[in-house]
Amino acid sequence: MEPANGRDTDFDDPHGDPRDHPSKAPRQRNRDGRAGREMSPRSIAGAIEGDQPLSPLAMNLRQWRERRGLSVSALAREAGVSKSTVSELERGHGNPSLDTIWALAKTLHVSLGALFVGHTEGDGSELKRLADAPVIAHESTTYVAQLMAGWRSSGEVELAVVTLAPHALRHSKGNAAGVIERVVCVNGPVDVGPVGATSRLHQGDMLMFPADQAHVYEAGENGARLVVVQQYPAAE
User: Which residues form the HTH cro/C1-type domain (predicted)?
Assistant: First the structure.
C-alpha cells in the first residue's frame, strides 16, 4: 500500500475496575474461512495452565521488573499491590483488575502495550483476533476498549483508511526495507498479508507483517474497509 499521512494515538488512563472474561478464541495463522465471532474479551492475565507457554503479560512483567532492578516485593510495595499478586501474574495465573495492571505499568514506567505485546512469528507476522484482545477500559456496556497493539517507533508512522470494492484485489510489490504494516479490519471479511501467506480478517481483527515484501489485499463479495498503519525504520 502506498502510504497516507497520519499518526497513531495512545489510550488515556481509564477509570473503573473492569472484570475480564476468559478467551475462547484460538490463535490462527494463514488464510481461513471461519465466520467472525462475537466479542469475548480475553482475561487481562491471559491465564495459562499446564505446559502452555506463559502469557505475554507474565513474561513482560518479569522482564520489565528485572530491567528496573526491582524484586517482587519491591515492585509490589511501590505499586501498592500484594506480593502474591505479582508472583501469580509472573507465573501466568490470576485475573487482576485493570487498576492493578495500571499500577504495575506506572511503577515500571512503561505503557500497557509494553506489558501485553507478545512475540511475533518467525516471518515477522502476527495475527490478533478481536476476541483475544485484553480489555483495557470498560464502562458498563457503553464503552469498551481493547488493546490490539503497542509499540515504540523511532521512525515515521503513517495511517490510512483503505476501502476495497466487492471482490477487489490489490497487489503491492512491497514498501521500503524495514517497513512494518498493521492492518485492522473495519468491515470485511478480507484476506491480507504476504503473497502465499495471507490471513482472513474479520471485523476488529488485526494483522502485523513486514511490508517490504510483496503482499495483497483481497475483498469478498461485500467489499472491505481497513485501517492501515505503516511504521518506518529510523532515518539514518
Answer: 61-115
